[in-house]
Amino acid sequence: MGNKTNPRSVGRVRRKIRIRKRLAGTAVRPRLSVFRSSRHIYAQIVDDDSGKTLAATSTQAVKVEGHGGNKDSAASVGTAIADAAKAAGISSVVFDRNGFKYHGRVKALAEAAREGGLVF
Questions:
Q1: Domain count of the chain?
Q2: CATH of the domain at 89
Q3: 31, exposed or middle or buried, with CB in 10 Å at 0-12, 13-18, 19+?
């Protein structure tokens, strides 16, 4: 995760831990976890009870046009994760922004997933 002493990384990890204290995915309502790097964005649906990833996708898997680190690519990943969730029989999830601000690419992914039929 880059430099472990970088204040930005440390702050995100602290926020992530704080969020995960009260947020957990179950078999009935799994967790939609989002990770964004400078080049790509990743989304996975996790059942924390069994510790299994039920569905996952990213800008690398979707093969987006141009740069993977923009809102358009994030939206295509959101649509793809909603389709993967439907295929796995999942309709409702808990959204885990993973310490990132609900803004920009994270927000674009979430809204596209909602439009794709995921409820959260």
A1: 1
A2: 3.30.420.100
A3: buried
**What separation, in Å, do the N-terminal and C-terminal C-alpha atoms of the chain show?**
28
Q: Centre a 10 Å sphere on the Cβ of residue 19 and count the other Cβ atoms it contains.
A: 14
Q: Which residues pair with 119 in a beta bridge?
A: 92
Mean pLDDT of each 10-residue bin along the chain, 120 residues long: 79 94 92 96 96 96 85 96 97 96 97 97
Rounded to whole angstroms, the Cα distance separating 37 from 93 reads 23
**Contact call for residues 29 and 54 (beta carbons, < 8 A):** no
Of the candidates 101, 46, 54, 111, the one whose C-alpha atom is nearest the C-alpha of residue 79 is: 111
For residue 45, being part of any structural domain is answered with: yes
